[in-house]
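ARCHIVE CARD
CATEGORY: sequence design from structure
SOURCE FIELD: tokenized fold
FIELD CONTENT:
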């Protein structure tokens, strides 16, 4: 029993360290109204992106009767959905990618050093917290914040590093 408590304490400390390393940014807060016989019932839905600016990023949503509680739930969901992104020189993505979620389509293109982040809205927040410094992002189709955010994350997850491509082809990185 004692060892189990120690292991649980170690896991809690590791989770706290991980959560402390990740920055969070609220993408959207929406008020949802449910009309009932007794009147209107208001709730809030929040979308949050978390990242460490070094290749880790995740998004999450949360709903509650209060804004702060919805944001807290969204942060917890985002921390569970964190994924690693392939970066080149810790500044841009390896290749061009397009992703579609719902009617939102996001196009990501790598850019030269010093170009900066050319993106707007939800895509910009995700790219900044992922640690990407030089990129061009274009939102095509719908501009729903949640779907644009999900499409951006999906396009980032499609990225394959040169080392991974070389391993898939059975070659060395220098041969590419």
């Amino acid at each position: 029993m004692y060892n189990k408590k120690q292991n649980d304490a170690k896991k809690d400390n590791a989770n706290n360290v991980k959560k402390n390393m990740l920055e969070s940014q609220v993408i959207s807060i929406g008020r949802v109204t449910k009309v009932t016989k007794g009147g209107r019932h208001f709730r809030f839905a929040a979308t949050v992106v978390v990242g460490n600016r070094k290749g880790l990023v995740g998004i999450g949503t949360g709903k509650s009767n209060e804004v702060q509680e919805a944001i807290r739930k969204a942060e917890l969901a985002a921390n569970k959905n964190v994924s690693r992104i392939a970066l080149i020189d810790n500044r841009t993505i390896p290749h061009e990618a397009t992703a579609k979620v719902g009617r939102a389509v996001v196009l990501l293109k790598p850019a030269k050093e010093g170009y900066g982040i050319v993106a707007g809205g939800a895509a910009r927040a995700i790219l900044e917290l992922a640690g990407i410094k030089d990129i061009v992002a274009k939102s095509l189709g719908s501009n729903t914040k949640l779907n644009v955010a999900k499409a951006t994350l999906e396009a980032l997850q499609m990225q394959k590093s040169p080392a991974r491509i070389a391993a898939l082809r059975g070659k060395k990185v220098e041969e590419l």
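CARD ANNOTATION: DSSP finds five helices and eight strands in the chain. Residues 93 and 162 are 11 Å apart (CA to CA).
SHELF: design records, drawer C
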